[in-house]
Amino acid sequence: MGKKKKTPPDIHWLYEASVQNVDTDLDFGKRVYTKHWKRKPLTVREDFCGTAKLAARWAQRSKLHEAWGIDFHQPTLDWGVKYNVSELTDKQKKRLHLICGDVLEAKTPKVDLAFALNFSFCVFKQRDVLRRYFQRMKESLKDEGLFVMDIYGGTESVTAKSDDVREIPGFTTPEGMKIPDFEYVWEQAAYNPINHDTTCHIHFKVPGFGKIEKAFTYEWRLWTLAELQEILLEAGFSKAEVYLHDFDDEGESDEIFRLRKTYENVQGWVAYVVGIK
Predict the structure, then answer these.
(1) What is the DSSP letter of 247?
(2) CA-closest candidate to residue 152, choices 262, 266, 26, 275
(3) I want to staple 275 with a disulfide (CB 3.0 to 4.6 A). Which of 13, 232, 262, 267 is the partner?
(4) Which helix (H) or strand (E) holds 96?
């Protein structure tokens, strides 16, 4: 008899370890918010929140913080409640509100700072729909409000490729499963230059567990920085800013995002785009 195949790790753990750095996102949002409004933000909204890691972390950071998270996929929210929300104290949990719903329809109290991260808004492929989403986002902000999203680009973002591999440090899950250092593989399976439609997959290679093919698949429109700024202004934001990183000696992002007007057209970059209400 062949060896029994080990049950692979939950893909949500692998995703959070590979893709998300919620403290970096929150620190960035707080820094830019304070620059514009000369005070610290207290309330946060996380759209397309998935496992609600960012919203939960915000509630955890201060007894003055309150957060809302919106996602249309209840099983993913349930996973976030089981793991990310369970780490909070009872008081922190009361300051975290999760909504299963459509970000184009769901309503929350007005917040200081809102996020749509991990390129999630790229599911909106029509300009009119994206503008409507930005208008909804503007309505959800207080008068002194800020909206932060991220987007990727560069010369290699508009080609089909599957060689973007990163080594991710291992960790142990709350259930005690030891996950060794593993590989995160980003595949751009297709790109249409006429309408910027792109199909991307995330694969994982975990030693002892094998390859998890197409753990996540995305059907997006890859919006440009110019388009996002224009549509934010069309939606009524007073200003739209772009923040981009430099590179370290090994060609990796230095993770320091600065306000930019010009930028070299390198192979790949990730930017924060900020709408100021």
Answers:
(1) B
(2) 266
(3) 232
(4) strand 96-100
